[in-house]
Amino acid sequence: MQKVLTQVPDATGHYGPYGGMFVPETLMAPLHELTAEYEKARADQAFQMELKFLLEEYAGRPTPLYLAERMTEKFGGAKVYLKREDLLHTGAHKINNALGQVLLARRMGKKRIIAETGAGQHGVATATVAARFGLECVVYMGAVDMERQALNVTRMRLLGAKVVAVTAGQQTLKEAVNEAMRDWVTNVRSTHYILGSALGSHPYPMMVRDFHRVIGDEARRQILEREEKLPEVLIACVGGGSNAIGLFYPFLQDEGVRCIGVEAGGRGILAGEHAARFQGGSLGVLQGARTFILQDSDGQIMNTHSISAGLDYAAVGPEHAWLRDLERVDYTYCTDDEALKAFCFLSETEGIIPAMESAHAIAEAIKLAPTLPKEHAIVVCLSGRGDKDVQQVAQVLGL
Amino acid sequence: MTSPSDNRIDSKFRDLRERGQKAFVAYITAGDPSPARTPELVWALERAGADIVELGVPFSDPLADGVVNQLAAQRALEAGTRPSVVLDILRAIRVQSQIPIVLYTYFNLIYAYGIERFCLHAYEAGADGVLVLDLPPEESQGETGVGSRLGDGSLRRISLVAPTTPPERLPKILEKATGFVYYVSREGVTGMQEHVATSISGRIDLLRKQTSLPICVGFGISTPEQARTVAHQADGAVVGSVLVNRIAEWGKDADLPRKLEEFARPLAEAIHS
User: Is the confidence at residue B144, as pLDDT, over 60?
Assistant: First the structure.
């Protein structure tokens, strides 16, 4: 079991039956090259030192593990700790992966960076590191997302990135990934694609996980210092699942630590109204990986909905599908309304405005904390801050 | 189950070789502008001189396709072109044509249908081959090789080779390949381009050393001149987006088939000359 948990993927990028490399032939050699380069970088002390330096001095790591005291008191149950990824430079955990991958791009001599983005947090992180390393940057974003996350569009443009509106399909994250892949397949010799979540073809799910495991590594050290024991529960939201796998991964062998991933329940688990792949999805192949997907009986990808652009996506990262099979991680969901309430609750109770994505994890903590004894500890990944969501929330609430 | 030599793709290439001719492979999206019109478009292409037809089975997320084919897939899906409808289209085509037909699609549709079931049903409906854009040979091997049964039986498995494919990868691809090899002429998605890559002849020579299968070249070929150049170096040229674009433009015309036929004829003549 222990080996199964952490020694994935296998050499061909599979997590049990999930993952793999389902891409056009043109991308196979570049992906193999990326895998080989990443394996080298991972073992290279100088690469790791430079990444560590940038994470600390540029991005602001380590992030605090903050005891949400008023929230804890209010529920009278388990202590709630927040892993404050929202305090990182650019406002979300996405910078961890963007920094890792930009160093990789530089090693491979790529002069041009592309990315997809949903909520815009990964786009901003990518535009940021591209600016920092003087590389050309193009970010693909669904036109619907550009409207609901307008602040991040402006930030990317200020950072010198070109933001390309994607108007195909439902104009959100999935279409942005399609368009980024089309760009990559066309410009693959000059360009590195910084994929922003733990999804897509191998080696991305593995690489993105490794670059984010710093979240869990730090949290583990911090909670041991504070509580002198491991937490009983970890909670994180799951779109593709990058912040979740980053938090969970270093704890997977600790059998007493329960991990909970929270998907977007949207307006409820009805076709087209949500993005909870483990609730309404089935096994399929999308954008490079075999995993759980929201699709119709023909295999056409279905529309999704979530109040949170970052969770509004039809496939889940393949490692999450595997961890669910192994019953190592539990996956649940929370609805738009619950997330919105959690968003307001955390703002008013702790003075922290969370990203709407992270508010899904907070909503689960709100449900769970009162049911657990006081001596238990919950660590919630506060994956990003909510500045980008303020206008949308103001609209919904009529503020 | 028929013997391998009965496959229409194989016998077509045998005939062409005997005549010293190259293959005009024409691509259109099934169900664009509507499932009912696709058979007459295929017959029109055959009259124009097409040797093989590739029929796109429309998928919601065609990430290897350029905008022309994306829009065609969207129109076809809006017209109700489910995979089962594509099989109906095949049966309708076969009423009056024996032109070799390759289904061109993305893996998830076949996976959802059931791989063996899809291959059997497609063959029974009249397909001769299948080309899956996002299924490399790596996903067709060993325990996790979900795609390994694709192309067993009577359907030819048309495999892609790209300009980025290193020589050492070729044996792995060719091991699974039957029917013909599809050489992608350039890095990129499907779509028209002004210039065809000039580096293809060296690549084709390399391929010929490793396979006796016919080699067809596609992606971006849109003029008779380009088609002639490519056909000269390979065993066939695939023309797609430029035809799809015509269908988009003339989709509502009653004489769409005749117009398509006239448009395709110079391409056929260039390839056959």
Answer: no
Q: Which of A12, A33, A184, A298 to mutate to test the interface with B (most CBs of B within 10 A)?
A: A298
In angstroms and rounded to an integer, the radius of gyration of the C-alpha atoms of chain B is 17
Q: Give the closest of B74, B109, B135 to A22, CB-based.
A: B135
CATH class of residue range B4-156+222-272: alpha beta
DSSP A7: S
Quick one: pLDDT band at residue B201, thresholds 50, 70, 90?
A: confident
User: For A286-321, how does the pLDDT look when each residue is reduced to its tens digit (9 = 90+)?
Assistant: 999 999 999 999 999 999 999 999 999 999 999 999
Q: What pLDDT is stored for residue B1 in this prediction?
A: 40
E strand or H helix at B144, and its extent? none
Label residues B207-235 b or e (16+ Cβ within 10 Å = b): beeebebbbbbbbbbbbbebbbbbbebbb
- Where does the pLDDT of residue B122 fall: very low under 50, low under 70, confident under 90, or very high at 90 and above? very high
Q: Is B192 left (phi over 0), alpha (psi -120 to 50) or beta?
A: beta
Least trusted range by pLDDT, from B131-145, B211-225, B252-266 = B131-145
Between A21, A168, A298, which is nearest B139 by CB? Answer: A21
What are the structure tokens assigned to A287, written together? 């954008």
Rounded Cα distance, A339 and A342, in Å: 5
A383 classed as catalytic = yes
CB B167 within 8 A of CB B140: no
3 state DSSP class of B76: helix
Q: CB-based burial of residue A213 (10 Å sphere; 0-12 exposed, 13-18 middle, 19+ buried)?
A: middle
Q: Are strands A377-382 and A282-286 parallel, antiparallel or unpaired?
A: unpaired
Q: Bridge-partner residues for A137, per DSSP?
A: A113
> Tell me: the pLDDT tens digits for A332-379?
999 999 999 999 999 999 999 999 999 999 999 999 999 999 999 999
User: Quick check: B179 pLDDT over 70?
Assistant: yes
Closest-CA residue to A391 (of A152, A224, A65, A181): A152
The pairing of strands A288-293 and A282-286 is: antiparallel
Residue whose pair of structure tokens reads 């502008």 in the numeric block: B33
**CA separation (Å) from B261 to B28, B39, B41, B271?**
13, 13, 8, 15
DSSP letters for B157-204: E-EEE-TT--GGGHHHHHHH--S-EEEE-SSS-S---SS--TTHHHHH
Q: Which residues does chain B have within 8 Å of residue A186's beta carbon, measured at their own beta carbons?
A: 187-189
CA dihedral A138, A140, A145, A147 (to 10 degrees): 50
Global pTM reads 0.95
- Chain A residues within an 8 Å CB radius of B164: 25-30, 188-189
Backbone angles phi, psi at B193, to 5 degrees: -145, 160
Q: What is the 3-state secondary structure (H, E, C) of A85-101?
A: HHHCHHHECHHHHHHHH
User: How far A328 CA lies from chain B's nearest CA (Å)?
Assistant: 22
Residue A133 backbone phi and psi in degrees, to 5? -105, 10
CA distance A53 to chain B (A): 35
pLDDT, residue B150, reads 81
pLDDT in tens, B183-193: 998 888 888 77
Residue partners of B230: CB distance under 8 A and separation at least 6: B185, B196, B200, B217, B221, B237
Closest CA to A303 of B61, B73, B69, B66: B61
The shortest CB-CB distance from B164 to any of A30, A288, A298 is to A30
Q: A94 to chain B, minimum CA–CA distance in Å?
A: 24
